[in-house]
Amino acid sequence: MVPNERIVIVDFGGQYAQLIARRVRECGVYSEIVSYRQGADAIIDKAPKGIIFTGGPASVYADDAPQMETKLFHAGIPILGICYGMQLMCRSLGGIVTASDSREYGHAEVVKRTAGDIFADVGAITRVWMSHGDYVTKVPDGFVVIGSTRHTPIAAIADTKRKLYGVQFHPEVAHTDEGQTMLRSFLLDVCGCSGSWTMEHYATQAIEEIRAKVGSGKVLLALSGGVDSSVCAKLISAAVGSQLTCIFVDHGLMRLHEGDEVEAAFKDSGVHFIRVNAEARFLDKLAGVTDPERKRKIIGEEFIRVFEEEGRKIGQVDYLAQGTIYPDVVESGEGNAAVIKSHHNVGGLPAVVDFKGLIEPLRDLFKDEVRALGEELGLADYLVWRQPFPGPGLAIRVIGEVTKDKLDTLRQADAIWREEIKNAGWERKVNQYFAVLTANQSVGVMGDSRTYAYTLALRGVVTNDFMTAEWAKIPYEVLAAASNRIVNEVAGINRVVYDITGKPPATIEWE
Prior knowledge:
By secondary structure, the chain is an alpha/beta fold. Helices cover 32% and strands 24% of the residues.
């Protein structure tokens, strides 16, 4: 579902690659991330309107530092280098990059040296976010310095003839006051993008591509009832109608009453809906397993086996559809990214799948874009804004071995937490909230008697794209009400804690 206009973001190992992609899309321009290892030819073949080089942890002059063939700089494609990307551009074209005596990290003020280019709509002095240990001390021929700071004389550069630009700071982070303005100028003015990429266009193109791929074949969709799979179901249904069968696998790892709620939402919706009750099957496979990556792999494998079996019952099935979204792909280690965690529908897939192929129409979208697509397709609000729920379900919210007793305990506690959030009117203020049953047990006292029971962790985060997140500042009285109810109403829990860690350094889920 790639539009005609695209920006390619070349990842050199920077922590903000996904954030850059998100910022580009906020300007109405489609973006995709590729590893520098793909090389110049593969990038040029994508015919991008522009290229952005990310930052990275390496020193550009090190023997094993990520590199890029110089032919990319002569391909006539506008390029913006950020931090390491700027240093790489300079060194590749004859400039000099030198190690600093000390690392510069934090806010700095850039003095603008030119009135046009990527600084066209930026103030004469603008606050930016620096994070680097190397400096460009000599620019290549054809470049001029367009921005400086007190400690970094060469903070921004431009070769307007070749449309090559570099900034030593990070325009993509919120700490850079006019960073989005700089990116927009690069995308719209320098690259000539129209800024017209919308969910309406995405939906139209996605439907056409699904129809072309499926033809007269049958599609089997893994429907969890969550946002991603629900939007996926609506999109594919719009494309191929009755050729789609949605299978909901109740693996016994759902939230309280959720299996019945999913069935009620889809059974009479006009979609061919099948519910498979497979709790015993999944719990048997998970018995004794404590490693979260193994849990994910086991669940992903068992999902596919169930789909294959159900597919055979309904006749020939040509394609398996999944609600995979972009953060799933990135966190599972595609491209140049490190493996954060395997998602059951990405890293968890078995090598052999009994279908012709996969259909993943949301694979290029961030979570908020998936919601926007759902609204564009006319999906009910209660489905579009349903709380995100991972494919492996509560298996990765029970730390350690998964048992039915632990799941039942967590289900009750999680339901109380979600109810208190709703009662307080915070359900739309917190993007994701849930409970985690930890493996820690501690001593407590209840009714003058000693207890030794589990610690429950409550989680709440605020985020736009689910690639980064801040912990939600939920009022103390809401936390207190939830804690009081949980320890009094749920057997086996005598301590409640609240997770105040952002992403990064943590992930949103605990496993």
